[in-house]
Structures are given as structure tokens and as C-alpha cells.
Amino acid sequence: MTSLSVAATRATVTLSLSRRTYLAWGLLAICCAVLMWELPGDETIPYHVAWAGFALAFGARVWSMTQAWLALAIFTAVTGGILAVRVAEGVLLWQEITEVPLMSLIMALLVLNVRRRQDALRVVTSVAHRQKQQAADQVLLTRLTSHEMRSPLTIASGYLELLRLSEPDARRADDLDIVREELERVTRTTERLLRVIRLQHQPGTETIDMPGVVAETVRRWAGMMQRQWVVDADGAGELVGSPERMRVVLDTLVENAIRYTATGDTIRVHASQARGTLVLGVADSGPGISASRRIWLNAEGTSEGFSPPLEGDARTQTGLGLGIVRSVAVARGGRLMVDQAREGGAFVAISVPLATTDARPIQTAMLDSALRTLPPARQATG
């Protein structure tokens, strides 16, 4: 059954129940009006019972505005006429008839407030449905984008490698090396953009086994890159949050560490808990980050956005990587931390409180800024 048919079925059921409560109150109102006529001097009892039934029935299943105003008008006219007759007969004092406009006013306010609440609920339900559909569409878009971007890049890389191996001309081989570097650059940027897209999804919250996530990350990367991999996650414990966001953080930091290290260098993936805080990061034995740059990055640790590329550093990219990591930390109420690793290189990590969850969406403004600051491609010579 499609969502449209389900919605139609629900609407039909709701309309049927609304009609039933409307007719049920109509019968109650008729009975109370008859009792008011048959019980001179005791009219107020069935009168208030009928209005109480009106409030109960209308609150349970909201009628249309036409039905509500029609019911109010007819019952007010009938009961007002009965009370007017009793006043004329001297059975009731004239002050008793003032209840008619007062009760009608109270019921009218009830109708207006309940309808406003129902309208607000309808809007909220519609928004929630659209957001759910957008989330599903975004997941599909991510998968399609990942396939459509990765497949051509993989094919192009394979053909380029074949051309490079069969090229006897040294100058043309150099040009092919430049093309390969640029293709690798596009591949890395594509991977980061796909991570940003994945981060826009509403995070699924669950209990995360942090040592398991760290070990899985190292296992995936160790099969592709020849480094001295170290798992440093003793005592990391568990975290309630989004496992996808934690994996994105580790993948981004590991990718940075790989770019600044060579075969045989050490990369340590770290996770630990202390004083209600989780520290999750990656250390390496590469050249590290200058003291002034570390001070600046730590000062910017609680802001969202990209980090400007390092000037004069050929291995730096767009700054989008640290922007992703920092935004994940900030979304949870944490921060980015940069320090010198005991291995001699850089230690880049996030520090997030254990008491909160990944409730906030990741800001995308950094994506636009980062795309505008992509470094220019190198020009091939020859």
C-alpha cells in the first residue's frame, strides 16, 4: 500500500469518527433539551451536561468549522428559548438567562483554540513527513552520487596508470604524472564532499563500542596503506551517539595523517575517556604542525567552518577535512584539539562530552566556503 493510499484511508477513518461523535452529541443535545423542557426549575442540570458533552466530543474528534458553528447556534437558540420561557413564566430569575451567551462564548473559544491546535499539529506533521522524505531522498542521492563519482574516477585512474607505464617519452610521462596527481586530488576532494553529504543526515543515536570503531578503522586503512599502525583505545569504553559521525571523524583524520607520512611511518588511532569526556583522534610521526598554527587551530576549536590551507605546504588541501571534524565536535558540544604527538608529528583530535548526544545538524556553510577556496589545479607542461 502506497503512502498516498494510507493517507487517504486515515482521512476516511478520521472523517467517519468525526461524524459519529457529531451525531452522538446531537442525540445528547436533543435529550438534554427535552429534559430542560420537561423539568421546570431544574433546567441548568441538563443544560450544563449538554455543553460538557460538546466539549468532550469536539475535543476527541474535531468537527468541521461549519458543523461546530451550526451546533453552537442551534443549541444556543433552543436552550436560550427554553430559559426565556421559564423566565417569562416566573420559574427562573432573569439573571439565569445570562448563562446562555456566557456558555456559548466559552464553547466558541474552545472551538477556536482546538482548531488552532489541530492546524498547528497538521503543519508539524506535514513538516515531519517532508523531512522524513528529504532524509530518504538524501540517502539515495548520497549513494547515487558516490557511485556516479567514484566509478569514473576509478576507471580513469586505471587507464591513466596503463598510459603512464607504456609512455616512453619522459616529458609526456611527467605530464601524465601531473594528471595523476590532479586526479588523486579530485578523488580526495570527492571523498570529503561525500562525507559532508553523509553528515547532513539526521544522526542515528546508539551505543557505540569505541575500541571496536577504532579497530575497524585501522583494519580498513591498514590494508591500503603501508604504515606502522597502532590501535590506542584501551579504556575508551562506550559512547551514546552517531557511529557514522565517529567514523567520518576517524577517516578524515587518518586520511590527513597518511598524506603527511610515508611508507614505514607510524599512525596511531587514539580513543580514551576521562572526566566525562571522550578524546578521539589520530597521531602520526610526520613533520607535524608548527606551534603558531597549533595555537590558531586550538583557538578556533569551537567554531564551525573550514580551516584555510597551510601556505607553502604542497600537501595541504582545501581545509575542508578539519572543518568536517571540527563541525562534528561542535555539533555535540565539543571542540577540536591539535597538539604535538609523542611520535614527533601532529596529534589532531576532538574532545566531546559523554553526557550529550549528536542532536544538532552539521552546518553546511563551511562547504560553500571551502568550495570557493579550492586551490587551483596545476598546469601540465609540454
Please give a structural write-up.
This protein is of the alpha+beta class and 382 residues long. Helices cover 61% and strands 12% of the residues. The protein has ten helices and seven strands. It has helices at 3-38, 44-60, 65-89, 99-165, 170-199, 210-222, 243-259, 291-299, 320-331, 365-372, and strands at 206-209, 228-232, 238-241, 266-274, 277-284, 335-340, 346-353. A five-stranded mixed β-sheet has the order 2-4-5-7-6. A two-stranded antiparallel sheet has the order 1-3. A hairpin with a 2-residue loop joins strand 4 and strand 5. Helix 1 packs antiparallel against helix 2 (44-60).
State the total count of DSSP E strands.
7
> Which structural category do the helix and sheet elements fall into?
alpha+beta
CA radius of gyration is 35 Å
How do the SSEs run, as a string of H and E?
HHHHHEHEEHEEHHEEH
Percentage of helical residues?
Answer: 55-70%
The largest sheet, given as strand count, sense and whether it forms a barrel, is:
5 strands, mixed
Tell me the number of helical segments per DSSP (H or I, 4 or more residues long). 10
**Can you list the strand order of the major beta sheet?**
2-4-5-7-6
Summarize the structure.
With 382 residues, the protein is α+β, with helices and mostly antiparallel strands. It is built from 10 helices and 7 strands.
Blueprint (SSEs and pairs):
Layout: H1 3-38, H2 44-60, H3 65-89, H4 99-165, H5 170-199, E1 206-209, H6 210-222, E2 228-232, E3 238-241, H7 243-259, E4 266-274, E5 277-284, H8 291-299, H9 320-331, E6 335-340, E7 346-353, H10 365-372
Parallel strand pairs: 2-4
Antiparallel strand pairs: 1-3, 4-5, 5-7, 6-7
